[in-house]
Specification:
- It is built from nine helices and 22 strands.
- The strands form five sheets. It has an eight-stranded mixed beta sheet, sandwiched between helices. A six-stranded mixed beta sheet has the order 9-2-1-13-22-21. A three-stranded antiparallel beta sheet has the order 3-8-4.
- Helix 1 runs parallel beside helix 5, helix 1 packs parallel to helix 9 and helix 2 crosses helix 9.
- Helix content is about 30%, strand content about 25%.
- It has two domains: about 170 residues, FAD/NAD(P)-binding domain; about 150 residues, D-Amino Acid Oxidase, Chain A, domain 2 (2-Layer Sandwich).
- The protein binds flavin-adenine dinucleotide.
- Flavin-adenine dinucleotide binds next to helix 1, strand 14 and helix 9.
- The site of flavin-adenine dinucleotide has 39 residues, from helix 1, strand 14 and helix 9.
Amino acid sequence: MHASTRPSKVVVVGGGIFGVSTAVHLARLGVQTTLINDGALANGASGRSLAWLNSARRRSDAYHRLRLAGIDRYRTLSVKYPDATWLRFDGGLTWDADDADNDIVAVFDYEHDLGYDAQLLAPDQIAKTTPGVDARSVTRQGAIFNPGEGWVDLPSLIGVLAEEFRALGGEIITDAGRATVNVQGGRASGVTTADGADWAADAVLLAAGGEVPAIVALAGQHIGDDTPIALLVRTKPIKHPLKAVLNTPRVAIRPTPDGAFALDSAWSEEEVIKKADGSYEIKLSTLEGLLLEASKVLEGNPKLEIADYGVGPKPIPGDGEPVFGELQAIPGYFVAFSHSGATLGLIAGELLADEIATGRRHPLLASFRPERFVS
Ligand SMILES: Cc1cc2nc3c(=O)[nH]c(=O)nc-3n(C[C@H](O)[C@H](O)[C@H](O)COP(=O)(O)OP(=O)(O)OC[C@H]3O[C@@H](n4cnc5c(N)ncnc54)[C@H](O)[C@@H]3O)c2cc1C
């Protein structure tokens, strides 16, 4: 444990869900905090996330426990904002392709044995449980419905948290360009923004999404990185009864606050072309293909139209598990780098703020320490 004294000043780098959530939790604890982002808030992965709140399928026990705590915090939030259009718990429906890898029955047994709320439904049972699905597209092995799952619109949530942060005296600097973390005398001493301004701090949280491994490497630290480039397509609003998040072999779909759908998939992600100048190219056939796949699984097979799309890094650590906490080699230098940041956003911010403010390492994060990448 390094941060044994309460910091008088913390700088958070990153205006995505991890940065903003941790900043507001620090402010609630009375810690003076400045949040710095390169552009507008939510301009990274959090602004183009499917944001399905879940702990579905198989993973380590520790990761499952953390995700359940993550969903629990959203449940509490939904009581505070009962009419929020940006946070819904209408369940999730998952099915697999009709091939040798179809794992639905085994996954159902696994979730059932964990006590994770799950129902195995034959295609013709789905309409009675959740509306808006074309049962003909569901494979004969059936689908798992998880009634406790939901979705969040992260930009809306970030807006709500940022407002509270400012009201508590927190400072938000946007459009600051690429910030760097300063290390002096072997510990984090603050941040320098692109204009050369220095922001001194006793502790720094680096929550820079997919940039985290490259930024800690500047300080000689290694965090394994498996970040792909991802694509999220948003349709125009459409009147349709779908409420649940759908996870299907060719497309994942969730409703949005304005009555549209957000779509992504593994195959469309693989079709993103990264150009030599660092920009991305999306083929029209990829966008149209994703709309078609979505239409096939929706009741009535509606014609969907694109409103816009987002493309860029989807932060994923090298071993797939979250990375949270203080770098043991550099006291005062904390990191947050993970996939499933929608599900984990509230709980990770709460636990990281607690660690930064008190210096006590929280047991729920014990499996997710950055030092596991140090050989
Ligand atoms: C297509 C897609 C689907 C997803 N689906 C789900 C899902 O269903 N469920 C789920 O739980 N999670 C999902 N995720 C993951 C989740 O969205 C991310 O884990 C989460 O948004 C990451 O938040 P973050 O704060 O780490 O990063 P970001 O939101 O990327 O925020 C980091 C911020 O730091 C800024 N930044 C970077 N470098 C610097 C710098 N040097 N100086 C200043 N600012 C900097 C960036 O511009 C950015 O604003 C999905 C993600 C994607 C992309």
